[in-house]
Amino acid sequence: MKCRKCGGAAALELRRHNAAFCPPHFLEFFRKQVAEAVHRHQMFTREEKIMVAVSGGKDSLALWDVLIEDGYQTAGLYLDLGIFDYSKESKAKCEAFAASRGQTLHIERVAEAVGAPIPVVQQATRRPTCSACGLSKRYLMNRAALQHGYPVVATGHNLDDEAATLFGSVMHWQTDALPRQSPALASTHPKLVRRVKPLYRLSELETAAFAFLRGIAYIVEECPFAMGANSIAHKQVLDRLEEASPGSKHNFLFGFLEKARPAFEKIEHVELLECTSCGQVTTGAICAFCKLADLVKRRTTG
Ligand code: AMP
Ligand code: FES
Ligand code: ZN
Ligand code: ZN
Questions:
Q1: Which of 81, 106, 136, 232 has the fewest beta carbons closer than 10 A?
Q2: What pLDDT is recorded for position 22?
Q3: Read out DSSP for 129-153?
Q4: What is the model's pLDDT at position 65?
Q5: What distance in angstroms lies between residue 134's CA and the mean position of ligand 1's atoms?
Q6: Quick one: which ligand is closest to 140's CA?
Q7: Which residue in 93, 9, 112, 96 sits closest to 55, CA to CA?
Q8: Would you say the CB of residue 121 lies under 6 angstroms from ligand 2?
Q9: Between 288-301 and 129-148, two packed helices, what is the crossing angle to 10 degrees?
Q10: Which ligand 2 atom is at minimum distance from the Cα of 129?
C-alpha cells in the first residue's frame, strides 16, 4: 500500500475513501476533515472562545489537539461523573493533557450539581444510567459555557457515534430526535450556547489512529455503565454493513443530513422559558435537570 499523497509506505488504509496514507499525510487528512466540518457548518470563528468537552477518551482529546494546533482559542471542560476509578482515571488524563499544552481545564462535579454521583443517581431514578447521565452532561455543558463566557461547546462525537444514534432514532421512529441530529446546533435562546461536533466526518478508527500518532495518552476503558444492549447491537449492524460495503455509515449519515433532515425540522415554534428554579432554558416551568436533582434528593435522604 502506498500513500495517496507522496507514494511512500502507507500506514493506514481508508477503504471508505479508497485511499491510504503515510503517518504525516494521515494527520494532514484528519485535520483537513475537521477544517471542512468547521467551515461547512460555520461552527466557530478564530475570534471566539471554544469550550471543548473532554471525557479523557481518544475522540475528545484528539479534537482538542487539532483545535489547539490550528490556533483556535480553546479551554477544556471535564465533567466528573463520580463513576469510581473510571472517573478518576479519565480526569487525570484530561488534566495531564491540559497541563502539557498549557491550556485551561474547567472541572464540574456532577455530584455537587445533582446531589449525588452518577451511580447513586441511577439507583435513585431506576432508569437506565445513561439517560440521567446524558441529561446531566448536556445541562452542565451549557451552564458551564454560559458561566465562563464561551458561546460554543464542541464535543468529540465521531461518524460512528452519529450514525449509530441516527440508526437508533430511525429504528424507533423517534421523530423528535431527528431534527436535533446535526453536526451543529444553533443557539435558539440567549441562555443556550451553540453545540458542535467537528469530528462527525471521521470514524472511530481514524480518531484512534490520530490519537496514537500524536502520542495522546487517553483512557481506553469505556464507562462501566456504557451503552445498553440496543446501542451495542446498532453499532454492530452498522459495522457489518461497513465491512461489506465501505462508506455505508458515511452514506447513511450524510444522506440523512442532506436529504432527509430538512423534512423533519419542526415548522411550529416551541416556546422556550426559563426554569423557575435554576433559570436555565426549559419548555416547562421546572427543567428536567432540576426535577432530576429533586428526585435524587428525595430518594437519597428519605
Ligand atoms: P459519549 O456520550 O461518552 O460518547 O461522549 C460524547 C462526547 O461527549 C465526548 O466526545 C465528549 O466531547 C463529551 N463528553 C462525554 N463525557 C464527558 C465528560 N465526562 N466530561 C466532558 N465531556 C464529556
Ligand atoms: Fe454516562 Fe457512562 S458516561 S453512564
Ligand atoms: Zn504520504
Ligand atoms: Zn432548572
A1: 232
A2: 98
A3: HHHHHHHHHHHHHHHHHHHHT-SEE
A4: 98
A5: 9
A6: 1
A7: 93
A8: no
A9: 120
A10: 4
Ligand closest in space to the Cα of 9: 3
Is 57 in contact with 156 (CB distance < 8 Å)?
Answer: yes
The region, left, alpha or beta by phi > 0 then psi within -120 to 50, assigned to residue 42 is: left
Distance 53 CA to ligand 1 centre (A): 6
Q: In sequence order, what are the beta bridge partners of 19? A: 14
Residue whose CA is at the smallest distance from ligand 1 atom 10: 156
> Measured between alpha carbons, how far is 292 from 126 in angstroms, rounded to an integer?
12
CA of 274 to the centre of ligand 4 (A): 8
* Gap from CA of 82 to ligand 2 centroid (Å): 10
End-to-end CA distance of the chain: 64
pLDDT tens column, 230-288: 778 889 999 999 999 999 999 999 999 999 998 888 665 678 999 999 999 999 999 99
Q: What is the pTM of this model?
A: 0.96
- Tens of pLDDT, residue by residue over 168-221, are 999 999 988 999 999 999 999 999 999 999 999 999 999 999 999 999 999 999
Please identify which residue in the block is written with the cell numbers 489547539.
68
**Does the Cβ of 241 fall within 6 Å of ligand 2?**
no
Type of residue numbered 147: Q
Phi, psi of 45 (to 5 degrees): -115, 175
